[in-house]
Amino acid sequence: MVRKLLRSVREYKKHSILAPVFVIFEVIMEVVIPLLMANLIDFGIDDGNLEYIVKMGVVLVVFALISLIFGILSGRSAAIASAGFAKNLRKDMYYKVQNFSFSNIDKFSTASIVTRLTTDVTNVQNAYMMIIRVAVRAPIMLICALVLAFNVNSSMALIFLCIVPILAVGLFFIMSKAHPIFERVFKTYDKLNNVVQENLYGIRVVKSFVREDHENEKFGKISKSIFKDFSKAERLLAWNMPLMQFCVYTCMLLISWFGARLIVLSGNDPVVGMTTGQLMSLITYAMQILMSLMMLSMIFVMIIISRASMERITEILDEESDITNGENPVKEVKDGSIIFDNVSFAYKKDADKMCLSDISVSIKSGETVGIIGGTGSGKTSLVNLIPRLYDVTKGKLTVGGLDVKDYDIEALRDSVAVVLQKNVLFSGTIKENLRWGNENATDEEIVNVCKLAQADSFVSTFPKGYDTYIEQGGTNVSGGQKQRLCIARALLKKPKILILDDSTSAVDTKTDALIRKAFAEEIPDTTKIIIAQRISSIENADKIIVMDDGGINAVGTHEELLKTNEIYREVYTSQTKSSQQ
After folding, report:
1. In whole angstroms, what is the distance from residue 334 CA to residue 320 CA?
2. Most buried among 203, 361, 430, 472, by the most CB within 10 A?
3. What DSSP string runs through 460-475?
4. pLDDT at residue 87 above 90?
5. Cα(301)–Cα(181) distance, rounded to whole angstroms?
6. Are the C-beta atoms of 405 and 351 separated by less than 8 Å?
7. What are the Cα distances from residue 506, in Å, to 196, 246, 480, 533?
8. pLDDT tens, residue by residue, 493-543
9. Contact 523, 498 (CB under 8 A)
10. CA-CA distance, 254 to 114, in Å (whole number)?
C-alpha cells in the first residue's frame, strides 16, 4: 500500500529527501546547544570568566541561527513535497477513475470517489508532511539526546529508560482502539456526501414537494453519526496529552531531585557527582527526549487518522477497469452493422438473475431501429453494451463485423454516439458544450447539427446565440432544449451508430417528427437506435424491438407488430386512446 502511494511523489522526490536532510542538521545543532550551555555555566559563570562567557555566547547565537535556518529550509521543502504529493495523488486517482467502466464506478459510488479525492487525500498529505519532517526529527533527536544524556551522567539517564516503556504501551493502546473508529467514520463521510449531492441535484424536487424538513432530518442523522464517532475517537486520543505530561513531569521531578542531591553531596564536582551545568543540560535533554516522544505520539495520531484514508485511496489505485483493450485492437469501425448473438448480461458477476437473457438480433448498417418496452425491461442495458460501457456476460456482440472486444475502446466509442436518459450539459457556452462531440468543429458544422436536432431555432433567439452560457447541469434551459442540444452534440461526432435513449421524451411530437425526418434525409448511412415510450417516435423505423423482462418479445415493423404482438398492440391502443381524449 505505502509503496503504491509513494509512486505519486515523482518530481517531488528532491524536496522529499531535502526536508529530512535539513531536519537532521537542525537536530544536530539543537542537541549540541545544551552541552555549550553546560560549559558556559560551569566554566564561565561559576568561574566568573567574562571572556569565556562572551565567546560561548557568540557560539550559542551562531548555533541557534544555523538551527533556525535549517528549520526554515526543512519546513519549506516539506510543504512543497507534501503539496506536490497530494497534487499527483489526486491526478493519479482522477485519471484512474476516467478509465473505469460503469461497473467500476457503481462499485465505489460517486460520493465515495469524491470523498477519497478530497478529504482522504488531505489526510494523507498532512501525514506525509509529518513523516518527512517530524517523523525524522523526533527519533533522531530522541537518540542523540539519549546518547548525550548518558555521556553527561549515565546513572541519571536511566530515568529516561524507565519512563519510555510506559509511554510506548500507552500510545500503542490508544492507536489500536482509535483506528477502527476512523475507518468507520470515513465510510460515513461517503454517505454524508451522497446526501448532500442528492439534495443539491434535486433541490427543485425537494422544494416542490416541501421536503426540506425531511432532508434536514436525513442530513442531521448522518452528521450526528459522524459527530459520535469522532467524539469517541477524540476522547481516546485526548489521553495522549495527559500521558505525555505525566511522563514529562515525572522525569523532571526525578532528575531535579536526584540531580540536586548529587550536586550538594559532591560540592559541584563532576568527578564525584554532578555540576549545575550538567544538571541544566540533563533537564534540557529530558525536555528534548520527552518532546520527541510527544511528537512521535502526534505522528501516531496522524497515522491513525490517515491509515484509513490511505487504504481507501489504494482501493481506487488498485482497481482495474473491467473493460480494457486486447493485444492488437482494431482502430477503425467498418460500418454501423450490429449483431447480438445469444447475449446475456448482469451488472454483477455473481448476480442470481440476468438483466438481459438470450438476446439475438441483427441490425444492418444505416437501419433505423426502434426499441420499446416497459420500465425495467432492459432497453438501456441493451444499448449500453454497444459502446462497451458494460461488457456482455455471455454470448457475443459484434459491430461492423467484429467482436466489440477486438476494437480499441476509444475508436469504438468514437464511432458510437449515445444520448443517454439523463442528459448532462456542463458549465460553459453552448459552443463549448457542443464541441464535446468534436473539439475541432467549425461554427458552420455546429449550426448544421443544431438544425438537424431542431436546436438552432431556439439557440438563435438567445441574445448571445451560440455563445450563451449554460449553467452547471443545464439548469437555465428547458428539458426539451437540453435534449436537443445533447442530440446535436452527439451528431457532431459523425458517428456510424447513433443511440437515442428516450432522449426526445421532453420534446413535443411535432419537433420529434422533424428530428426523425432530418435523420432520415441527412444521415441515411448512420445506424439509428431509438429507445422511446411513444410509438409515434418509432413507428416509421425499419424494425422495432419489443422488450419484456430482459428479453426480446418480438421484432418487426409497426404494421407487423400491430397484428402479431399483444404488448405492442396494448401500448399503441392506450396511446391512441389518450391522444383522442
Report:
1. 29
2. 430
3. TTSTTGGGPEEPGGGT
4. yes
5. 13
6. no
7. 27, 71, 5, 11
8. 889 999 998 877 777 888 888 888 888 888 888 999 999 888 888 888 999
9. yes
10. 52
Q: Please report which confidence band the pLDDT of residue 189 belongs to, taking 50, 70 and 90 as the band edges.
A: confident
- Strands 543-548 and 368-373, how do they pair? parallel
Has residue 31 got a pLDDT over 80? yes
DSSP E strand boundaries for 253-404: 338-345, 356-363, 368-373, 394-399, 402-403
Element (H, E) at 66: helix 50-98
- Residues 300 and 177 sit within 8 Å (Cβ to Cβ): no
CB 60 within 8 A of CB 37: yes
Residues 6+ apart with CB under 8 A from 503: 419, 420, 421, 423, 483, 486, 487
**Alpha-carbon span 406 to 327, nearest angstrom:** 9
Domains present along the chain, CATH in parentheses: 2-318 (1.20.1560.10), 338-580 (3.40.50.300)
Q: Compute the residue count for the chain.
A: 581
- CA distances 546 to 366, 369, 377, 558, Å, are 20, 11, 9, 11
Q: What angle do CA 518, 521, 525 make, to 5 degrees?
A: 110
Of the listed ranges 154-168, 334-348, 402-416, 437-451, the least confidently predicted one is 154-168
3-state SS class at 309 = helix
DSSP per-residue letters across 524-560: TTSEEEEE-S-GGGTTTSSEEEEEETTEEEEEE-HHH
Cα-based distances in Å from 192 to 52, 203, 227, 228, 508 = 66, 16, 12, 14, 39
Do residues 60 and 9 make contact, with C-beta atoms less than 8 angstroms apart? Answer: no
259 vs 93, 283, 288, CA distance in Å? 57, 10, 18
**Average pLDDT value for residue range 396-424:** 88
**Per-residue pLDDT reduced to its tens digit, 194-233:** 788 777 777 777 777 788 888 888 888 888 888 888 888 8
Cell of 274: 554532578
Copy the grid coordinates of residue 248.
514529562
Arithmetic mean of pLDDT, 332-347 = 91
Alpha-carbon gap, residue 373 to 533, rounded angstroms:
7
Please provide residue 455's backbone torsions phi and psi, each rounded to the nearest 5 degrees. Answer: -100, -20
Residue % of the chain over a pLDDT of 70: 97
- Cell match 485492437: residue? 329
Name the most confidently modeled range: 20-34, 185-199, 238-252, 357-371: 357-371
d(CA 479, CA 425): 11
Q: How far apart are CA 98 and CA 1, in angstroms?
A: 21
Q: Are 370 and 377 in contact (CB under 8 A)?
A: no
Q: What is the DSSP string of 101-126?
A: -HHHHHHH-HHHHHHIIIIIHHHHHH
Say which residue, 107 or 9, is predicted with more confidence. 9
Q: Say whether pLDDT at 578 is over 60.
A: no
